[in-house]
Amino acid sequence: MKALILNSGLGRRMGALTDEHPKCMTEIDAGGETILSRQLRVIAAAGIREVVITTGYYDKVLVDYCNSLDLPLQYTFIKNPIYDRTNYIYSIWCAREYLREDIVLMHGDLVFEEAVFARLLASEESCMVVSSLLPLPEKDFKAVIGNGEIQKIGIEFFENALAAQPLYLLKESDLALWLESICAFVERGDVNCYAENAFNAVSDRCKIFPLDVKNMLCGEIDTPQDLEAVSEKLAECGTRTVYMCFSTDVIHSGHIAILKRARRLGKLTVGVLTDNAVMSYKHFPVVPYEDRCSMLENIAGVTRVVAQESLSYRDNLLRLRPDFVVHGDDWRVGVQRPIRDETEKVLASYGGTLIEFPYSNDEKYRALDTNARAGLSLPDIRRARLKRSLEAKGLITAIEAHSGITGLIAENTVVYEGGGTHQFDAMWISSLCDSTAKGKPDIELVDMTSRFRTIDDIMEVTTKPIIFDGDTGGLTEHFVYTVKSLERMGVSMVIIEDKKGLKKNSLFGAEVEQTQASIEEFCEKIRAGKLAQKTRDFMICARIESLILERGMEDALARAAAFVEAGADAIMIHSRKSSPDEIFEFVEKFRACDGGTPLVVVPTSFNQVTEEEFKTRGVNVVIYANQLTRSGFPAMQRAARSILTHHRAKECDEEMCMSIKDIITLIPEDN
Ligand code: SPV
Ligand code: MG
Fold first, then answer.
1. Domains along the sequence of the chain with CATH
2. How do residues 425-464 score in pLDDT, each as one tens digit?
């Protein structure tokens, strides 16, 4: 993209101000900034490198001045040799050979705030700056709008018109059409009209759209009075405020570039998504919220940092009422679109503006992100994540996984809701499902070595934290080794149930013979486990079977208190009733005496309760303990039956199978 600035004219109406230099060199602030230096700085800051400037009046002064500014710009100066006898249509004609790509076109006496320029560059179509709020000027440009497009530009149009400024973004094809028309005008000697007359002749084909900048500064300086008004408005622009939101763990040069551009628009406030909000939307934050805040606070130009509690910008925007929100244009499509739409609506409610910069999807930035994510699967980081998630979210969810593929489902399944996403926080390595996958009963028959093998398979392909179903924990002498091994592997929590002898699955309840360990026996096991662990992150959760074995609420509560006293980091209360009442009663009574210890539930039989309700009542971990096994198994049975019934696989393939292509691409190669 190039910029074309028209600076050939005499600027007669400026009086003495243009006695010694062209109008564009008129100073607009006390710091010596001129119309031109400001334009060039804005152009350079936007990343444009080539500028074509048409000259005429005091051309040498102008060329020397541009070079003295020392900006990272390459200039092409095109002199209009008959500048005193022609209008700028002729200057553009002189420069035509240099205009073969997308350009921004501006008159040399135009002063605009940076946000106007940013919006212009973000446009996907050719556009011209207009204002729906300013009164129609008597003598300056107006644009006639029809069907959302600009149909005519000129000073003589008042009907269906908006005040317009000669600042354009022209896509290559529209520029070519306009230039063709300019050539036709010049060749027949029409050199004293506006270039816009040539546009008007082809406006049915040359599509230029209005870019409504409302009250933002974009005005020409024709007279000393204009100069005064524009300088005043420029000072006002100094009080503009800008808001951006970040969730990133690493700040790279792409972020710095967008921050730099944002802070040029005004005083910059950065919202940092809280850990909870990040977790709900993408992956777990590698860098905690506080550290992400201080990273951003220390970037030059960031005036302040505030928390953004959810993906939605609404609350912060209504509170801070920034003039601009800045974002990459990537959120125009995909899952973030609803958030963008809401942001636009909230901004419109108080007169704010959304500014979008091109999103950099650079390979090196993606690699940084991938590397940060790879770290999440390392044992220390994965282990610590459960506690961090619990602290950040209050309630977390885990889904059963018993193999690499079910681990991938737990890891990658995401649903989109309200512009955000929802996914599981952790995985539960269920004894029931691990045993079932091996065709064995859930009676601690699958030994620890084999259970660890399952953990390993899952860990190899996932990053989410793991809660391990440790059954009874076995003999205390064995349990201490289990704790050490799990901790070393990066498991976050082991849940052991207060049973002894031959353990059967709890969902059999009192229908089968099961023995509950005494409080003292089980406390001993907890204490030994806590002594064995090496890190502070690993958690031992005591699971109480009193309700399952019909020993009553009092027994359950007494055990919970004793187990916490013995060092349990969390309590799981289990029930096999279809009504959640006894679970709710336990939670309420437990919470009356213990507000802090996390409570875990496994709502297999009382599946009607929502996570929200559990949270409100004081539960912290909800485990969906067996749903992948219970849904996968009947699907497989149906497929097997279909093949037997039809003596071929066609029906099975067509009605119940994923395609071969899908299954082979399901698993990414870099796993
Ligand atoms: C498991 O998933 O193995 C459990 C939960 O221990 S339950 O099956 O409900 O006992
Ligand atoms: Mg189990």
1. 2-236 (3.90.550.10), 240-365 (3.40.50.620), 426-457+470-623 (3.20.20.60), 631-665 (no CATH)
2. 999 999 999 999 999 999 999 999 999 999 999 999 999 9
Distance CA 626, CA 637 (A): 17
CB 462 within 8 A of CB 377: yes
pLDDT of 668 strictly over 70: no
Burial of 360 (0-12, 13-18, 19+ CB in 10 A): middle
Q: Are 429 and 467 in contact (CB under 8 A)?
A: yes
Ion ligand 2 nearby residues (CB, 5 A): 431-432, 469
Q: Whose CA is nearest to atom 10 of ligand 1?
A: 506
Q: What single-letter amino acid sits at 619?
A: V
Which positions are annotated as active-site residues? Answer: 442
The verdict on the CB of residue 128 being under 6 Å from ligand 1 is: no
Q: Is the CB of 461 under 6 A from ligand 1?
A: no
586/530 Cα distance (integer angstroms): 25
Q: Is 439 helix (H, G, I), strand (E, B) or coil?
A: coil
Q: Angle at Cα 574 formed by Cα 570 and Cα 577, nearest 5°?
A: 155
Q: How far apart are CA 270 and CA 258, in angstroms?
A: 12
The Cα–Cα gap between 199 and 192 comes to 15
Q: Is any ligand 1 atom within 6 A of the Cβ of residue 625?
A: yes
**The two three-digit tokens of residue 281, written as one number:** 């939307």
505 lines ligand 1 (CB under 6 A): yes
Cβ(454)–Cβ(466) below 8 Å: no
Separation of CA 520 and ligand 2 centre (Å): 22
Find out whether the beta carbon of 469 lies less than 6 Å from any atom of ligand 1. yes
Residue with the two structure tokens 């958690």: 539
pLDDT class of 366 with cuts at 50, 70, 90: confident
The pLDDT assigned to 540 comes to 98
CA of 505 to the centre of ligand 2 (A): 6
**Among 76, 90, 99, which residue's Cα sits nearest to residue 176?**
99
Å from CA of 153 to ligand 1 middle: 74
The ligand with the least distance to the CA atom of 606 is 1
Q: Across the chain, what does the average pLDDT equal?
A: 92
pTM of the complete model: 0.74
The predicted-structure confidence for 143-169, as pLDDT tens digits, reads as follows 999 999 999 999 999 999 999 999 999
- Rounded to an integer, the average pLDDT of 327-334 is 87
